[in-house]
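Sequence, please.
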């Protein structure tokens, strides 16, 4: 079967009874032949910028649900025998969503907001988690969607928390070490190492990129107090958006400082907003507030659906949230951040008054957010027992601890902790999802064959 004759600007391909038009540069860039993609490393052997702007299609043929293209004015170094093969499913995906399907495009679970009544925090057994990839996938899916799970029957060995973490990815090494202990010590250099109440916080706020997943393995529990408390800060942020959009915008736009200040050994400092959002971009326009972005995004989605049949998902506020940066112990004095809208807008406004206004605005908004975080109906509480390990999304699920009896210093409540970064976590999750989808496809295919042969 032959496709329609290509033009210089676009290549017309009949797909499911409809002519679809593609840039020849886009089609050339999709080539996965062994000359373009290394067989073992799966990395490119040419640069997209090597594709000549005048590249044209010499011939286009559709064979067995695949597009076969021979080129005129191909990338320098490629001879006339080089051709590109692209499955029609790939082109269908581009037409519907603008994304070429592939292993990295597997579906991941959407975020699900929760409170105390809907948290439904699951427990998973240690042995199944360590030895069964299906259980590991269930754990990681739940971490991605809800941000909080527990592993039970964990051996009370100091290396257990490392073993649990390394099932998901390499451990994040920090100045605390690859693993660390949370226990009461004299003259503690971190509030976590005291017996006092520890309010809701994100760990490592003073890093530009805090850890994504935190693990805490209970080695020994306190006889009185020390209850662990968790809250879905994404839900609190969305509730703030619904109740007071101005307060939400303040926390999403004004950057505050976090630090770990021990001049003899460590001086960490980072500046970021409390509510970190994904880039608010539609086409070539960047928006500075969420309502305008959501309106433009929905308008563009509907327009693309009408004009091209593109099936793009609707976005809501939750889809725009990236991280929550919250932690009273690590908050540094507010400053005006250079190069931002926080600077004086005119010579008549003093720097001092700009900082005054920032403090007043941020304080009012932060108080409202803090109140939402502390609502009893939003809290999941648990007195962890030896052999339990909690895993949570450190940049979404804030954690706290109630005070406990410190009379037995060094022997009371004892947790072992570690971290895993976001990139390796998502990589492992995608691999597990891809393998699961492939297994399902193979089982379905086998079932169809068996049915035909029966």
């Amino acid at each position: 079967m032959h496709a329609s004759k290509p033009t210089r600007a676009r290549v017309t391909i009949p797909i499911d009874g409809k002519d679809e038009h593609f840039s020849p540069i886009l089609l050339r860039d999709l080539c996965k032949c062994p000359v373009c993609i290394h067989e073992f490393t799966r990395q490119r052997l040419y640069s997209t910028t090597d594709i000549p702007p005048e590249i044209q299609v010499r011939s286009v043929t559709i064979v067995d649900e695949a597009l076969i293209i021979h080129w005129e004015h191909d990338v320098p170094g490629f001879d006339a025998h080089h051709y590109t093969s692209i499955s029609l499913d790939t082109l269908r995906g581009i037409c519907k969503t603008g994304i070429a399907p592939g292993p990295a495009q597997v579906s991941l679970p959407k975020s699900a907001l929760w409170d105390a009544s809907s948290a439904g925090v699951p427990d998973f057994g240690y042995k199944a988690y360590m030895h069964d990839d299906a259980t590991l996938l269930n754990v990681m899916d739940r971490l991605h969607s809800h941000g909080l799970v527990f592993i039970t029957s964990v051996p009370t060995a100091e290396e257990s928390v490392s073993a649990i973490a390394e099932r998901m990815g390499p451990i994040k090494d920090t100045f605390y070490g690859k693993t660390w202990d949370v226990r009461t010590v004299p003259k503690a250099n971190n509030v976590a190492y005291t017996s006092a109440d520890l309010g809701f916080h994100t760990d490592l706020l003073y890093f530009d990129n805090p850890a994504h997943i935190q693990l805490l393995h209970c080695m020994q529990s306190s006889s009185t107090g020390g209850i662990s408390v968790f809250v879905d800060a994404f839900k609190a942020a969305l509730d703030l958006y619904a109740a007071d959009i101005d307060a939400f915008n303040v926390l999403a736009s004004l950057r505050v400082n976090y630090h770990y200040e021990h001049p003899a050994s460590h001086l960490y400092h980072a500046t970021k907003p409390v509510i970190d959002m994904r880039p608010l971009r539609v086409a070539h326009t960047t928006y500075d507030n969420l309502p305008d972005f959501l309106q433009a995004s929905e308008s563009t989605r509907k327009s693309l659906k009408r004009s091209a049949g593109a099936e793009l998902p609707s976005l809501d506020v939750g889809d725009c949230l990236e991280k929550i940066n919250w932690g009273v112990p690590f908050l540094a004095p507010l400053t005006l951040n250079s190069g931002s809208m926080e600077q004086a807008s005119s010579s008549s406004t003093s720097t001092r008054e700009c900082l005054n206004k920032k403090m007043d605005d941020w304080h009012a908004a932060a108080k409202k957010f803090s109140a939402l975080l502390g609502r009893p109906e939003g809290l999941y509480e648990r007195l962890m027992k030896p052999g339990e390990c909690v895993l949570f999304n450190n940049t979404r699920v804030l954690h706290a601890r109630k005070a406990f009896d410190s009379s037995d210093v060094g022997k009371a409540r004892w947790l072992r902790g570690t971290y895993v970064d976001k990139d390796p976590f998502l990589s492992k999750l995608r691999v597990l999802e891809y393998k699961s989808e492939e297994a399902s496809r193979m089982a379905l295919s086998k079932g169809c064959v068996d049915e035909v042969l029966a």
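Residues 422-453 form the longest helix (32 residues).
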